[in-house]
Amino acid sequence: MYIASYLSSLMQMSRIVKKSPSVCTDLPLNSSDVCNKLRLMKELLKSSYGPTARLKQVHNNIGGAVVTTSTSSVLLQAISSSHPIVSLIKGSILNHVSRFSDCGLFASIFCLSLIEEAGRCDLSKNVIIRVNKHLLSLCTAHLQQEDCGCKVQLDFCSSQSLITLARSVISSKPTCVLSEPESAHISRLAVQAFLLTVPCNIPDKVRLGRTVTIPMEGHSVLESAVFPGLLLDTPENISLGNLCSPLRMVLFSASLAGDLSELGDGRIEVHQGVDTDSQIVDQLLELGKQVLKDEVKLFVCQKVIHPVLQHYLRCNGVIVIERLGISLMEPLIQLTGAQPVATLHTTVPWEAYGEVHNVSVRPFGSKTKLHLHPAGKTTICTMILCHRNETMLSELKLVCQKTEHVLRLTLREPCALLGGGCTETHLAAYVRHQSKNDVSESSPVLGCSQTEYLLAAEAFCRSLESVATSLEHDDGASLIDLTHAHHWTLPSDAAEEHLEDAAALCGCGVVQSCQNKKWSYLNTEYAEFSPEPLLTASPLQPTVLDSFTAKVNALEVAVETANLVLDVRYVIQDVN
Amino acid sequence: MVPLEQLHLSHVLQAVSALESIVLRSFGPEGGQVLFTRDTGQVMVSRSGKRILTALHLDHPLARMVVRCVWKHSTITGDGSKTFVLLLASLLRIIHATATKDPHMFQPHNSTEASEAATARHLADRLLEFALTELDKLIVLNVLPHGFRVSLENFTAKTQHDLSCQTLLVSFFRTRLGYAYCDFFRNLFCELLSHWKVKDDRPSFSMQFLNNSFLALHTQVSGVPVNCSRLIEGQVIHRDFATPCPQVRKQPLKAVVFNGYLQPKLLTTGDVLELRCGDKVTEDRGIVHFSSWTEKSVESIIATLQSFGVSVLLCALKQSSAVLAAATQAGMCLVECVSEEEISLFTQLSGVTPISDCRRIHPEHIATLTFCKPLLLGAHRYVHLDFHDCEERLKVKPCSLVICAPSEGQADQHACAFQDAFRMLLTALEPVRKTQTALEETIPSKKCTSLHADNISNGTACRVHLHQKCVTETGCVISAGGTFEFLLHHALHQYGHSCSVSVNTSAVVPVSQLLEKALLSVPRQIYSHNLKHFLQAQTRVVALIPKQPHALSANFIHTEGPLGDGKLSLCSCENGNMSLKLLDLGLESVSCKYQLVLAVLQCLTNLLRINMVLRTHAVLHTESHDSLNAHSESSEGEDED
User: Fold this and answer.
1) What average pLDDT does chain A have?
2) Which range is the signal sequence, renumbered to this chain (chain A) (predicted)?
3) Domain end marker among A352, A377, A402
4) Among A330, A567, A568, A575, which would you mutate to test the B interface (most chain B Cβ atoms within 10 Å of its Cβ)?
C-alpha cells in the first residue's frame, strides 16, 4: 500500500517536470549561422557527387561500425541535424530517395544551390518562389515533350541501353570499389535479375517478382551470379537421396515447436501425472505421418520445428528446413505455389502443397546453400553478391537494390535522361532562352517586374549549372558547348586552346568535339541560345544515362523544398 | 510559502505582444512559413496561427490562457487565429494607454496600479457588453451590404457565376499554403465537394460529413511533388492485405467487417484451465483437444463465409496465423487492424453492420464492392476498394483524397489546411444567428413576408429584408484585405459620434472608440510593407460607403434580385469597378469575422479579470489546471450561447 502511493507520487512528480521553453529564430535565412550550415552541407554533398566522388567515413565517436559511403541515403541519415532547416531539407530528400532510389544527391545539391542563389540576389522571397515554380513547370513540360533534346527512348529489344542505365547507377557509387570489368559484370547481372523478375505471360495485371539478394564476403566480385529460383540456408549434413522430380513440398507458417499460443491469456494448471508435452508431440508426429503419406519430400517451416518431428521426418528421407523467416515466405509461396498451413489438428488440404522441380546443393566457400529450382516459369530469382570486404559488400548490396528499383521505374516510363551533367546544362540553356523570350508575358502573371523575373531566372539556371559543375572533383574546368548545350570537362593540366583534343566526348558521350565548336566556361556569362537538337542518326550511343522518372521527381522535389525553405520566416525549436 | 505575483496590465500586454511578434511573421500577403521541430525531432511547417501557437511551450500562464482561447476559436471556425492575437494585442495596448492616462476614472484606489487594473477591467467588461448587444446590428447595417452571398451550390457548379466561392477558397488557401499552391488546392477542394455532394439534399450535410470523416478520407504521401495530389475513387484502407491477394477475381465482390477475433480465445484473462489425470474431458487427447476445437471453429466460420460468397474480410483486430492460413486456403483477402474511423466510414458507405459474433452471420452484414485491390502510395501498400451501388443508395460518388508533398511536415500542413477549409466554410455558411432577435424588437415582424416581392424604397423595410436574408440565407462574404475592418471602423466611428451627441455622458469614454481604433491595426499589418497601400485601401473602401442612409437602402434594392437567385452579386453596382478591384484581394467570411471579434473580446475580459498569479512547487498541477480549465470553460460557454 505504502509502495503504491509512493510510486504514484513519483509518477506525478515525473509528470510535473517543467518543459523548457522553445528556442526561436526570427528570419533564419538572414542569419549567417544558418547560411554557413547550409553551405557546409552543400560542400559536403557536392564532394560526394558523381563517379569520381570523394568518399565519406561516418563513425560515431562513442563506438560502433565505421561506414564508408558516398550514397545520399546513408550520408543524409548520418548528418545529425543541428538546425530545423537542415532537417527539413534532409527529410524531403530522404523521402525522395526512398521512393525512387536515385538522384538524391542531385536533388539536395540543386535545392541547396537554389537557396544560396536566392540569398545572393536581392529579391523579395515571394517573387523568387513564384518564378521558381514557373520555371519548374517550364522544365517539366520540356522534359515531357517527345522531342526533348536530353531524353532518350529506351529500347527494350536490346539490353544495351538497360545495361548502360544500370552501369551509370553502379559507377556513380565509388564506394563499391569496382574495376571496369567488375562494374560491367555487376551491371549485366542487375539487368539479368531484373529481366528474370518480369513475368513472361502477362495476365491483365503485371505483377513483378522478387530478387532475393545474398551477400557473400571474401570472394571476388566476378564470382557474383544470378540464379532462377531460391537459395536457402541448409542444415550441415544434408543428404540428398535419389529424389524424383518434381518434389512435393509443404510450408508451415505456424510454429511447430509444440507451443499452444492461441489458447488465450488465461492460466493453465497442470496436475501431477498429466504429460501435456507428450500429448503435443504425439499430435505433431500425427501431422508428420500424414505428410509422409502424401509423399512430401520438402518440409519448410517459417518458425521452429520440434526436434522430435525433425528427426522423424529426416529419418524418412524428407528435407527439413526450419526458421525460414518472414521475408522469404512470400518469394517461396510465389515460387512453389504452396499455401502456408497454420493448423496442426486438421489434415493438410491437397491444394496447400506446392512443388519444386528439383533441389541441389551449391557450395559457396565455407557455406552450402540449397537451391530450389522452379517447377515452371517463375519470377523469383536469387542474386549472390560477392566482394572482398564487408564495407564494400554492404554498399554493393545497397547499390544493386537501387539499380533494380531504377530499372523497374523504366517500365513506368520507358525513357532515360542523358547523364554526365548534360541534362543539367541543356535544361539551363533552355530555361535561359525561354525566360528571355517570355519575359513580357510571364512577369505580369507572376506579379513582378521584368528585371526581377530575369534575375530570378538567372539564379535558377546558375543553380542547375552548379550541379553539373559538382561532378568535377580534380580541379578540372566545366564547360558548356554553345550548340547542343552539353557538359564538357577539361582536365586541370590541359590547355584551353586544345579543348578538342583534351575532351573528345561530352559528359554523356553523345556529342563529339570538332573544330568549329564553341565552348564557354560554366558559371560565366554567355549569350543565351536555343540548344540545337541532336541529329537523329547520331553514330554514338550515350555512355551515361540517368533514370527519367527519378530525375524529374528529384527536380520537382528540389524546387518545392527550396521554395518551402525560402518561405520560412520564423523557426521554433523544441529543445526538450 | 507560495510566491505571489501581482499581475499588472503591462505584464498582460507584454505576454500578448510576444505572441503577436511570432504570429506577425506569417500574417498577411507577405507573411511566410513558421518552421518548428518537436521534441521528437519531427519537423513541422505551418502558416496556421493555431498550430504555431500550440507548438510553443509557453511558460507564462497568461500566454497559455490566450493560446487556449485562440485554439478554441479556430477549432470551431478554422480560421482567424492570427487576427485574433493581433486584435487582442491592439485592444490591450489601447486599454493600457487609456488606463494609464486616466487611472482614476471610476473609483479612487490606493495605488496607481490597482486603479489602472480596475479601469482596464471595467473597460473590457463594457466592451464585451457593447459587442454582445450592438455589434451584430452594426455589422448587419454597415458591413453586409458590401458583401456577397455564396452558397454551396456555387462551389460545385461549373459556371462562371461561382467566382466568389472560388475566390473565398483561394484566399483561404493562400493564407495557409502561400501563393504557389492555392489555385491547385482550390480546384482539388471543389472537385472533392462535387463528388461528395448529395443530390437533392442540404449541402452543408455533405460538408459536415467530410469534415467528420476527413481522417479516414485522406492519405498523406511524402517524397512526391505536391502536384501529384489527386482524388481517387472509392475508399482507401490504410493497411496492407495480410493474406496474398489473388490476381483475377470475379466481380462484384462480397465483403464483411469483423469487430473481434475470428479464432475464439479459449481462455480469457482470469480463467483457469485445470488438467487432471484421468479426467473425463482430457482422457482422450488432453490439452490438444482444446486447441483443435478452436481451429475447428475457425474452419466453420470460413466455411459459412464461403457459403455466402464472401471474399474480402476487414478486421479491426490482429488475427491468428491459423485464421490467415485458413483465409488464404479459401481464397479470401484479409485485412487486419483496420482503424475505427475507417471501419465507421466503410459501414456508413456500404450500409452494413460489423459482425461481432462470428456464429451469427446474416446477409445484412455483407457489403458489395466493385473492386478491392492493393494500391501503392508512397512507401506503403494500402487496400483500395469501391462500393457497388453507392450512387443509387447514397446518391454520392465516394472518393478519397491523396495529398502529396516532398516532406511529411508539408503533407501534414496541406491536410490541416484542407480540414480547416471545411470548418471555415461551415462557419461561413452558418447564418449570423444573433441578429434575429436584435432587430425584431424594433421592427414589426409581419412586414417581412409581404415585402419580399416588390421593391419598396422604405429604408426600414429594406433593413428587415436584408436582415432576413442573413438569418435565413447563409454564407455572406466580403472582400479581404481589411475591408471588414475598414467598414466596421467607419460604422463604429459613426456610432460613437451619434452616441456622444445624443447622450451627453462625456465623462465616460465611449467604448466603441476603443474597438474602432483597435480594428485598424489589422489592415495596418496587412499593408505593413507599404503604408501608401494602406491609405489607398482605406480610401477605396470608405468611398464605397454612401453618405446618406437613403442611398444605403437604394443599394440593397439594387442587389436584391441577384441575391435571391443565389448567384454572385456585387452589392453596390454603381461602384462596380471598385468592388471588382477589391475582389483581387480575395474574400473572407463575415460570420467568421464576427465570431472572431466576439471571441477576442471574451478573451480580453477573461484576461483582465485575473489579478494575481500563484506559483507553487507542490503537486498542484491538478488544481492549477482545473482553475485554468474552469476559466476557459466559462469562456467556452460564452462562446457557444
Assistant:
1) 85
2) none
3) A377
4) A567
